Amino acid sequence: MLKSDVIWKIISGVLFATVGGMLVVIVIQVLGRMVGQSIPWTEELIRYLFLWTVNFGMAVGMRHANHASVNILYLVLPRKKWIEVVHLVIYTASAFVFFSLLSYWNYGMTMRQLRSGEISPALEIPMFLVSLPLFMCDLLAVVGLAQSMFLDMKTRERVSSCDQGEASDIIEEARV
Description:
The chain is mainly alpha-helical and 176 residues long.
């Protein structure tokens, strides 16, 4: 097993834990409301777990190129190898720039929260612990992008050929 595979297995475990944690905390919140005793920290914890779930899921989505994309221009252009290459370059470069900038900004926010000593209102945990996974997930998205575009030829071919399943079929039928 490759080291990178171990990293993605750990991230899958983190995703399982965050989704499971949300489920448990929601059940606690519902039971608390049923007995007339609202538990104030549950809403805040669910919000943080959801934020982490979305960001770790985004990183995994970049690893497998399973995210929303707008390829209509590439689907209506003729099937030429150079168009596929241009599409792959634009896709990779734009995602790399986006996640690099996002990583830079989230790193800055995390460091400001660490220096300021900001704490969350209900859980009273340091806020940098809440935003640290955002920075980490942005870096993981860049790593996932690099792996999917440079190491995983199957994913690279799927992206470069704009294989969108039903969308491609619908466009092809419209051409005829």
